[in-house]
Amino acid sequence: xxxxxVLTVSLLMVFAGGVFGQGCAVCTKAAAxxxxxxxxxxxxxxxxxxxxxxAFMGTLGYIWWRHxxxxxxx
Length: 74
Fold this sequence. Notes:
The structure is a single chain. With 74 residues, this protein is mainly alpha-helical. 85% of the residues lie in helices and 0% in strands. The longest helix is centred in the last third of the chain and has 33 residues, at 36-68. It is elongated, with a radius of gyration of 19 Å. The mean pLDDT is 81.
């Protein structure tokens, strides 16, 4: 069951890369014409938007790790 889930998620990530890949070129062209202050603002906005999903995934990963950790022998 777990192997099937990992395989499915891996395949979706591989095939979805092309769909989201064009965003990098658009951001690069837009950022190339910006001054330093605007470029810092763009970078700050990217970090701001990325924080919540990364925090959510990190929390889920930590919870999963804590519950699936092998019990330690005393």
